[in-house]
Specification:
With 171 residues, the chain is mainly alpha-helical. The chain is built from eight helices and no strands. The chain is globular and about 45 Å long. It starts with a helix and ends in a 6-residue tail after the last helix.
Length: 171
Amino acid sequence: MAADLIKYFIKFVLLVLIQVFVLNNIQFSSYVNPYLYVLFIVTLPFAVPRIWTMCIAFVLGLSIDIFSNTPGMHAFACVMVAFLRHYIILLFSNSEIYKSQTELSVISMGKSNFFMYAATVVFLHHATLFVIDTFSLHSPLFLLQRILYSFIFTMLLIFGIEFFKQKPKQR
């Protein structure tokens, strides 16, 4: 239990640092903003109670907001996806995940289920974040491009990490 808490704390801090010092400085023509920190919410075990998931998501989003000088946008987007996460997992996973204490990943859920689950969470996060950031539907094409390009880039990063974590198959 304590080892898991330490592992998640290190993962939390590492993702925040990567987001703040590396990924926030990557911006391609104001369309692509990768937000890898959402991986922390995506991979939390299903067994973590929803209220704790929402509290953790709030602290995660607030941490990014503090370093990015954004007034609560990331915190709101994180809490929103943390609230919906339970239902999204139920859509895309098997019954073994519900009782499992393992973190959600390609290994625990399978490639297609994890892809659909992670894609839904990341898309909802990005859509919420960019709608709040734009706070206008004046230019819907620009907003849609920001959401889609950032979503694609973030998903590539998430799957790069997930496939890197996979153990090679034993023969």
